[in-house]
Design a protein that fits this description.
The chain is an alpha+beta fold. 40% of the residues lie in helices and 27% in strands. It is built from 5 helices and 8 strands.
Length: 212
């Protein structure tokens, strides 16, 4: 993870472009799933210290909904998609036609959780597919898991091992907008936490060398 300190604006521009391509593919899939037009974008990509990562989503005590998965293949790492509970509840209600679906108090409706997992699968799969297309590196998402908890508790699973080898992570902002009269928006963040050495492999494949 020390390689991240060498990132220049060009590297983040590449990540943002990859993210926007993935967002476009995800929007197409979500439009079919929700039976409505969906717009998605990646307004920002940035590198942040691990000790500040919780602040990207309102603090360690903020209650959030999250999808977690491992990245497998030629490079490995962890990926989170974390979003506001109220925002994702509205989308899942629209998807399941269940106006009572909620993520505030367990037990949670199994169909709603399955729908959330499907949304997370589409988002992560689209992003990793665009990454693979750019880099020609095999990247595969594991089966995702869902967690509804405080941000600090959710992120600790990925941050504890990383804190021993580095101190930075990549944050990819994501906006999902349902293009209807209400224009409901789901704002979330991808947290990309590559295993040691993975960034060098990725950027070498892009023709951008971190040791320059």
């Amino acid at each position: 993870m020390d390689d991240l300190k060498k990132l220049q604006p060009i590297h983040l521009d590449v990540l943002k472009e990859i993210g926007n391509i993935g967002a476009g593919n995800a929007a197409t899939s979500l439009s079919v799933l929700l039976n409505m037009t969906i717009d998605m974008s990646v307004p920002d990509v940035r590198v942040v210290p691990l000790q500040e990562i919780h602040e990207q989503i309102g603090g360690a005590d903020t209650e959030v909904a999250a999808i977690f998965l491992r990245i497998e293949g030629q490079v490995t790492g962890s990926m989170y998609f974390i979003t506001n509970i109220d925002d994702i509840e509205k989308m899942i209600r629209r998807l399941t036609k269940n106006d009572q679906f909620q993520l505030k108090d367990p037990p949670y409706d199994e169909m709603g959780i399955s729908a959330f997992l499907e949304v997370g699968n589409i988002l992560a799969g689209s992003y990793l597919s665009s990454f693979s297309d750019f880099t020609k590196i095999d990247l595969q998402p594991s089966v995702p898991g869902v967690s509804i908890d405080m941000a600090g508790a959710i992120l600790s699973y990925g941050l504890i091992p990383l804190s021993e080898v580095g101190d930075l992570a990549i944050v990819i902002d994501t906006e999902i907008v349902e293009v209807d009269k209400e224009r409901q928006k789901v704002s979330g963040h991808f947290f990309l936490l590559p295993d040691p050495g993975s960034f060098q492999t990725i950027f070498n494949a892009l023709g951008v060398h971190l040791n320059e």
